[in-house]
Input
Amino acid sequence: MPSAQPWEAAGKPVQRPVSECAGPPASTAPQLAGAQGGGGRGAALTARRVQRPASLSLWQPLKIFACSQLGSLVRRAALLRDAPDHLHKYEKSHNFKVHTFRGPHWCEYCANFMWGLIAQGVKCSDCGLNVHKQCCRLVPTDCQPDPRRLPKVFGCDLTALVKAHRGRLPMVVEMCIGEIEARGLKSEGLYRVSGVSDLVEEVRTAFDKEGEKADISAKAYEDVNVITGALKLYFRELPTPLVTYQAYPHFVEAAKVSDPAERLEQLRRALQTLPPAHYDTLHCLMAHLHRVSQQEKHNLMSSENLSIVFGPTLMRPHEQDVLATLNGMRHQRLLVELLIRHVQELF
Output
């Protein structure tokens, strides 16, 4: 008869070692779980899901969204870094509008959460920057417009259009001037004769829909006056005139100076008050009109005639006062004529 174990002694309760009471070793647990069949494995997975902290499930989408916000900032910084040198001087303020965001959003300026259910902050309609209402006054003027956010070409802010397409001049100005000088400098009544309005609207629609791919060649529009009409329409529909409202009083003051040399000097100082994109575009246009006036014996368009056409198109007072507008027309004609004649001295 085998000898009794110490824990099986008579009169004492049976006490098994802890190793036997603890169940099978950890290495054999998966095998036993597998032996219980598919139901056991499913129950184990369900239990594991239940035991997962609820905070992880709650914050996971927030973390994903925060990463996307960070990606937006990195992408915007890359656009500013990779922009051509001339675009860095084209400062543009953000076009902020009150916005209701769906889901959680963080301010892209201070990186703090935007609280509330409606109208939590503001959003730039040109580049998509999202910030608090109080932060919008602190954001630097480094708006980098997204071409996909600009609804059209005609009627778009000039600086926004230039920065969005990363050019030096608006595409309409560059393409139209190139086409006019290629085939129409000697056309009689250039810029004075109007093109067919329906065709001018076609050109406008082509630029709005196709941008730089718009076809304005002689094959598409044989009459060059259609192209000149589209160019004049572009300048008329600018939300801020080529000679901005802020710079306009300086130009008028220059026009009132009687001494010719002092007048040119004051006009040169007035030009420096223009935003860089407006200054470069005005320089290009005046150089083009100077070349048009040099063909006066063919096209019958002197600098004076061109100033009558372009004066009210390029500049106007901010106040829509009839008396101020009439008084300003004389100054506008004189200013444009001076800019055309003395383009090489003034720019």
